[in-house]
Design a protein that fits this description.
The protein is of the alpha/beta class. It has a six-stranded mixed sheet with strand order 4-3-2-5-6-7, sandwiched between helices. It has a three-stranded antiparallel sheet with strand order 1-9-8, with helices on one face. It binds guanosine-5'-monophosphate. Keywords: Cytoplasm, Glycosyltransferase, Magnesium, Metal-binding, Nucleotide-binding, Purine salvage, Transferase.
């Protein structure tokens, strides 16, 4: 049975994703273009942001460095357990650097709201968030950026549990090149 047959509906196609990622990268390239500031550090939240980050950085027209953090907050279900733990730390030094935190989706806001103080504690001069999807209707914690940080989002997502383009259900479906909603029988 093919992977596509597990999907009930497609919310954003591969082409729509590519167009939007190019727009975000162009905006970031403009906003962070500076002769005086050190190159920004793009920090992806593993694993969900891996495809978005890979596409985004290849379209940013500036020198950037790239690192990942890992945060454990989801089991194999569809709801956050509300207590994120940073399980893989930064390797790069972000002191006095502008950090662009790259997320697959901001849902309750708990994960990014745990990472921003962490990056502040490492001396980042600003923290921006670039999330591919945003579900503002589900927010439990307002996202407080650091310094002159900005909030970028690809698309506002309706209140569905979505998979694809890096996002999983029970560690599957990350390799779908589009964003979709799973058929209910596959949540079981
Ligand atoms: P938050 O801490 O903002 O509630 O959630 C952030 C994380 O929850 C995301 O990085 C993602 O891993 C997971 N998440 C939230 N909503 C969804 C969704 O609709 N689909 C998937 N696959 N993961 C989600």
């Amino acid at each position: 049975m093919s992977l596509d047959s597990h999907i009930e509906s497609v919310l954003w196609t591969h082409d729509q994703i590519s167009d939007r990622v190019a727009q975000l990268a162009a905006q970031i390239s403009t906003d962070f273009d500076s002769d005086s500031a050190p190159p920004p550090v793009v920090v992806g939240v593993a694993t969900g942001a891996f495809l978005f980050l890979a596409d985004l950085v290849r379209k940013i027209q500036l020198p950037v460095s790239v690192d990942f953090v890992r945060v454990e907050s989801y089991g194999s279900g569809t709801e956050s357990n509300g207590a994120p733990v940073i399980s893989v730390n930064l390797k790069l030094d972000v002191k006095d650097k502008h950090v662009i935190l790259v997320e697959d989706i901001v849902d309750t806001g708990i994960t990014v709201s745990c990472l921003i103080p962490y990056l502040e504690s490492k001396g980042a001069s600003s923290v921006s968030v670039c999330t591919f999807l945003d579900k503002p209707s589900r927010r439990k914690v307002q996202v407080e950026l650091l310094g002159k940080g900005k909030f970028y989002r690809g698309f506002q997502c309706p209140d569905y549990f979505v998979v694809g383009y890096g996002m999983d259900f029970a560690e599957l479906y990350r390799n779908l090149p589009y964003i979709g909603v799973l058929k209910p029988e596959y949540y079981k």
